[in-house]
Amino acid sequence: MASIHTERETLAYGGASAGLSSRWAVARSTLALAFRSIIVFVTVFFLATLLTFALQGLSGLSPAHLQLSESATPEAIAALEHEWGLDLPLWQQYLNWFGGIVQGDLGRSWYNGADISLLLTSRAAISLSIAGLALLIGVTLGAVLGITAAKFQTTWIDRAITTFTTFVSVLPPFVVGIGLVAIFAVWFNWFPSAGYVPLDRGGLGPWLSHIWLPSLALSMEAVADIARQLRVGLIQASRENYVTGALVRGLSSERIFWGHVLRNGSGPALTMLGMKFPNLIGGAVVTEAVFGLAGYGRFAADSASRGDVPAVQGVLVLAIVLVVAFNLLVNLLLVRLSPASARGI
Amino acid sequence: MLRGIWQLRAGKLSVLFLSVIILLAIFGPALAPYDPLVGTDHVLADPSAQHWLGTDYLGRDVLSRILAGSTISVLGSVQVAVIALFVGAIPGILSVYLGRTFEWLTLRLVDTLIALPFLVFAVAVTALLGNGIPQAMLVVGVMVSPAFYRVARAAALTISRSQYVEAAILSGASIGWIVRKHVWAKILPAIAITLANTMGTGFVVVSSLTFLGIGVQPPAPTWGGVLASDLGYLNFRPYAPLFTTVLIVLTVLAFNLLADVIRDVSGESGRALLIRREKKRGRTARQTSATIPPTPHGDPQ
């Protein structure tokens, strides 16, 4: 599988005689690229947490709204704000908060003083089960559809898949969710329409049957996007000169497809996956509501309407960390698959 | 360009459908046969001559609630797109002309906005800022603005390198004059495409938010709210969500179709259309910030 790349690289660096020095150059440029991409991700993380932190100032809320009733005196408010460290300069508050995040400490809730990391863990387990399974469905089904469409391009199979993905891509997740509930939960009564059973409580079966429909609803957008990008990427890669070259050298078309075309043509779909991951994490909010699950989306909405700023910030930070980590992973995978893609961070 | 849209069947279809929807948004509340807020004893009634779409769990006429709710649902998406246009396109154009610091800063901000999990943020921030429609529109508008930033920036980049702009600079034209005279005229088609796409996205997001009850207070009717109340009583009226979902899906489809049609006709002739189709086929997702990104909902091929 790697042969095609090494061939290209040695060609690019002037033949076999320059082998060693070219390898060093490649390693150095890869390091530089890794450094640059880390800078980008760190900046994004920093700006996103800064925006999240700014919510407190923008909303103008303070724990006094939650904990003190109408009889609150200015002294009581000041005392409470001192207790929560809100009388410190803003930059110091940010540093304290950010320092906590780095250690996994999301602070305490204004509403009941509980540790937010603890409150969030059980909720996040629900949301992440759904998002994880949705990711799995999205990648598997998307890959199957995309590869099938590309292999049978311009036949009725290709047209049917393209029509399906085009239609699915405009369906909002909550519409898909309601449709699935109406068909599979109410009409056929195959799956429960609401609720959740933790994996360690009920075992694999009940857990899966509860998160199966929400995950399917959430995954549809990813399925459509991956299938379409993969189809375009594969068709494009199959028109490259090296495919003709491999064909001339007598390689079987199956081997060319799975070894060369798939490797080179899956980059766009992977990039798309990285770009759509935030939607998967964010879309969980709506899916949870459709299926009556108490995940982090519900937690965020409830906390927000109570004015519990630190709890909301906790959810947002968790989501940001997930997105940044996942995109870093996708980028690494892209570089591994095709070194040229590292240029386009 | 406008005539071109009308000449294509898909264009005619989407424009006609969207006109109906927008008329509905303006006159819908006046057309409602019943008061959308007042319940009756006819709870969860099936469709009949009196109540064409039946009644909900409080005995309110569903058709009246959909008609009355169309204002927020449809005009909301237009507001979102307009806010996003101003928040995104202006820095996008300026990023090419205002030097490297501004460019770097706005590019990273756009990266950040794209990386944020959209709906969680929209829900949380709207609720924190006071849970009203203006807050919701503002938050969603800012969050979808990167699409406009990128389109405007890409157009401005190509134009800033073209020779007639160079000539204008040499003959002493100011940046403001060049932007007004050359840049705007060139990026208008790209902006129109993004505008149609963003209205589609904005519509989905506004529907999602109202479905969650974010941005509106409970008795106020919205399309998302009608769906949410139907969902709770699916065992009694399993067909109930059908009409609202079809309405929502058709509206999103129409916006996306319109974006596609504008893309097709924004070239001058049929030949341009063919070249564009060819280019479109060769398009990939791997894009840097300087090129036009795939929109959140993509474009049907």
UniProtKB/TrEMBL annotation, chain A:
Keyword Oxidoreductase on entry: no
Record's GO cellular component terms: plasma membrane
GO BP term, pick one: transmembrane transport
InterPro entries reported in the protein's UniProt record: BPD_transp_1_N (IPR045621), MetI-like (IPR000515), MetI-like_sf (IPR035906)
CDD domains with a match to the protein in the record: TM_PBP2
Keywords: Cell membrane, Membrane, Transmembrane, Transmembrane helix, Transport
PROSITE patterns linked: ABC_TM1 (PS50928)
Membrane spanning stretches: 33-55, 124-149, 161-187, 207-227, 280-299, 311-335
Annotated localization: Cell membrane
Topology relative to the membrane: Multi-pass membrane protein
Residue ranges of every copy of the ABC transmembrane type-1 domain listed in the record: 124-334
Source taxon at top rank: Bacteria
Family, as annotated: Belongs to the binding-protein-dependent transport system permease family.
PANTHER family in the record: DIPEPTIDE TRANSPORT SYSTEM PERMEASE PROTEIN DPPB-RELATED, PEPTIDE ABC TRANSPORTER PERMEASE PROTEIN
Name of the protein: Peptide/nickel transport system permease protein
Organism: Rhizobium wenxiniae
Automatic annotation (TrEMBL), chain B:
Gene Ontology CC terms, in alphabetical order: plasma membrane
UniProt-annotated stretches for the region Disordered: 277-301
UniProt entry tagged with the keyword Metal-binding: no
Primary residence: membrane
GO biological process, one term: transmembrane transport
Domain of life: Bacteria
Membrane topology of the entry: Multi-pass membrane protein
UniProt-annotated location(s): Cell membrane
Family from the record: Belongs to the binding-protein-dependent transport system permease family.
Protein name from the UniProt record: Peptide/nickel transport system permease protein
The organism of origin for this protein: Rhizobium wenxiniae
